């Protein structure tokens, strides 16, 4: 079983509340808009990290992290990208690939809106952890944590980190 902490849209922000949950995970996944490599460097010091760059990330971050990251976690096919849309209205960057070769778990950031939904037609679980940084229009800073055990995605939990301005 692999315990995952999923976050996005840090926009250069990292704090003890994020790190507390990072220490409890086996892996940390970041769905883009990292903002500064100090964020991922700090997270890497705790646990293995899988990340993609987002639309605010500079060339240094783009060099270290891809736009799309597709991999197996145990027996689950995972695809992480920053801008991907929502079922069934995937964005033009992802739509054809998802329809042709759907992953089991599709993860995006960008919207700052926490959302978990199942695409019944393609049998894809979509997750967006919201935003855990302090920049943006979101009110509450959020992340997700869950487990992957073989083919099973389980124990999904929303982590609320408090108001954006605090």
Number of strands: 12
* Amino-to-carboxy terminus distance: 34 Å
Identify the strand order in the major beta sheet: 3-2-1-11-12
Task: Show unreliable segments.
Answer: none
| Element-by-element helix/strand order | EHEHEHEEEEHEEEEE
Shape descriptor reads globular
How much of the sequence lies in strands comes to 35-45%
Radius of gyration: 15 Å
- Please describe the biggest sheet, giving its number of strands, its sense, and whether it closes into a barrel: 5 strands, mixed
Bin the helical content.
10-25%
Averaged pLDDT, please? 95
Structural class: alpha/beta
Per DSSP, the total helix count is 4
Question: Secondary-structure blueprint of this entry?
Answer:
Layout (H helix, E strand, L loop, with lengths): L1 E6 L8 H9 L2 E4 L6 H8 L4 E3 L7 H6 L3 E6 L2 E6 L3 E2 L2 E2 L4 H6 L4 E3 L6 E6 L4 E6 L10 E10 L2 E12 L3
Short description:
With 166 residues, the protein is of the alpha/beta class. The protein has helices at residues 16-24, 37-44, 59-64, 95-100; strands at 2-7, 27-30, 49-51, 68-73, 76-81, 85-86, 89-90, 105-107, 114-119, 124-129, 140-149, 152-163. It has four helices and twelve strands; from the N terminus they run βαβαβαββββαβββββ.
